Amino acid sequence: MSERRAYLDRGIGELRGVVTLDGRPERLLIRRDDDEPRLMLGARLIARVASLEPALGTAFLDLGAGAEAILPFKPDARPVRGQSIEIEIRGEPRRGKLAQARAVGPAEGAPRLIAGPDLLADLDVLSHGAKLVEGPAARLVADEAEAEALEVLHPLPGGGQIAIEPTRALTAVDVDLSDRKGGDAKRVSRQANLAALGMAARLLRVKGLGGIVVIDLVGRGHDGNALLAAARAAFGPDNPGVAIGPVGRFGTMELSLPRRIRPLAERLCRDDGALSDLTLAQRLIRRLQAEAAAQPGARLVAVCAPGVATAAAPLGALLAEQIGARFSITADPGRARDSLDVGEAR
């Protein structure tokens, strides 16, 4: 029977919540101090209908403070421009796309936030009420989840691997036997495909990926019924909103998964795929915290690239409130962006 556990890492300027499935990360939720709460999954708001696109069945909403969202509607439930409605955010914004909302009911007054997102409540629901773990163990699990969310290649138990690569149109999942051993090629392929479906479901959740997913299965002569049943079980936790197609003539399975959270790669990386200055700054601050705990009273120095140092400055001010001003952050113009050094001051 599958076991889920919940972890909360309380960082400087950041909360990271993780749900694990049988010891491996399944969900990674990140909340940063500069996040716009109006656009986070689960936020409840009073919104104003700013404009309508009847041909698309879409209303554009003003959420206040410059935040926007879209609201799909049916012809018999068309809103009126200028009216106020209560909504809930059901899909966070992603690159080039606005947040998606669902209507709750009529409302009055100016656009405003009623209730912000609740990370602890989300973790409780996603982990099925598992006891929350905090402290060093939670940080270790959160670091592992963050690393896995950014990987492309993932080894399968028993050999082989899957590659998960999102594009603008869809997410491609490729199953590769690689070094998987076995005498019966058909049996080996079947085992790899079944393992790949379970792993792909977990990894797509931890990466925050949804929309159209195409899984390129390995081998030929697939047992379509067995694979469809396995896919339904693996992607069951993503319901409601999951649609799974049969194995096609080219050995691929197509799925449609609901988009709920912003993809983790977008949250942690720049448009070019490199880690953002803020993500690197968060890692630098975590290293400073760890070194400060390991060397109580020591004066520390952190050295990083200029952009990272700028992003880390406000976080460093918050850290100083906790451990005192016994560290410095130095910008080195010649240093690579991902090179972060923390040590005792000489």
Describe this structure in words.
With 346 residues, the protein is of the alpha+beta class. 28% of the residues lie in helices and 33% in strands. The protein has 7 helices and 19 strands. The protein has helices spanning 119-126, 136-150, 185-207, 224-234, 264-268, 277-294, 306-323; strands spanning 4-11, 14-21, 24-32, 44-53, 58-64, 67-72, 84-91, 99-106, 112-115, 132-133, 153-155, 161-166, 171-176, 211-216, 243-244, 252-257, 300-304, 327-331, 341-344. It is globular.
The assigned structural class equals: alpha+beta
**N- and C-termini, Cα separation:** 53 Å
Integer-rounded radius of gyration? 23 Å
CATH-defined topology of the largest domain: Aminopeptidase
CATH class of the largest domain: Alpha Beta
Enumerate the strands of the largest sheet in spatial order, edge to edge or round the barrel. Answer: 11-12-13-14-16-15
Key phrases:
single chain; five-stranded mixed beta barrel; alpha+beta; Nucleotidyltransferase, domain 5; 346 residues; OB fold (Dihydrolipoamide Acetyltransferase, E2P); 7 helices; Aminopeptidase
Structure, briefly:
The chain is about 30% helix and about 35% strand. It has seven helices and 19 strands.
Present the secondary structure layout.
Layout: E1 4-11, E2 14-21, E3 24-32, E4 44-53, E5 58-64, E6 67-72, E7 84-91, E8 99-106, E9 112-115, H1 119-126, E10 132-133, H2 136-150, E11 153-155, E12 161-166, E13 171-176, H3 185-207, E14 211-216, H4 224-234, E15 243-244, E16 252-257, H5 264-268, H6 277-294, E17 300-304, H7 306-323, E18 327-331, E19 341-344
Parallel strand pairs: 1-10, 6-8, 13-14, 17-18
Antiparallel strand pairs: 1-2, 2-3, 4-5, 4-7, 4-9, 5-6, 7-8, 11-12, 12-13, 14-16, 15-16, 17-19
Helix pairs in contact: 3-4, 6-7
